[in-house]
């Protein structure tokens, strides 16, 4: 997949998001502190305190009975939530896969996070789910 294809896919996704109705989420954003020069990834990750998942669940309308907590930063959402929310419209699921990284290491994870940030910036309710990264080229 070339850069123009990726650009067209991102453009189409953003245009679809702008046409969609927004819901009633009330998610508070964590503070963002821009630094120059940009620190290493590990320094950025260690500098941020994650939001408790139970608090996030309340912000997006997940009931405590629909959540299995694994500590304060991990949880599984029970499938019973689908029955409660069946009257709502379907969401969209975007899979980012099979990208050859740029020489700077920008690949699937960077694309996913960038797309998530962009969609959030235009007011869309969005989540990203990333598995553990490969820790660089292998």
Description:
By secondary structure, this protein is mainly alpha-helical. The protein contains five helices and two strands. The protein has helices spanning 3-19, 41-47, 53-59, 81-84, 108-121, and strands at 67-69, 75-77. It has a two-stranded antiparallel sheet. β1 and β2 form a beta hairpin. The longest helix has 17 residues, at 3-19. The chain is globular and about 45 Å long. The two termini are 20 Å apart. The model has no long low-confidence stretch (mean pLDDT 79).
For this entry, give a set of tags.
138 residues, 2 strands, single chain, 4% strand, 5 helices, globular, mainly alpha, two-stranded antiparallel ribbon, 36% helix
Question: Topology of this protein?
Answer:
Layout: H1 3-19, H2 41-47, H3 53-59, E1 67-69, E2 75-77, H4 81-84, H5 108-121
Antiparallel strand pairs: 1-2
In short:
The chain is mainly alpha-helical. The protein has helices at residues 3-19, 41-47, 53-59, 81-84, 108-121, and strands spanning 67-69, 75-77.
What letter string, H or E per element, gives the SSE order? HHHEEHH
The best one-word shape is globular
Coarse structural class: mainly alpha
Strand content: under 5%
Low-pLDDT parts are none
What gyration radius follows from the Cα positions, in whole Å?
A: 17 Å
Secondary structure tally: strands: 2
- What is the number of helices? 5
State the helical fraction.
25-40%
- Largest sheet data: 2 strands, antiparallel
The rounded distance between the terminal residues' Cα atoms is 20 Å
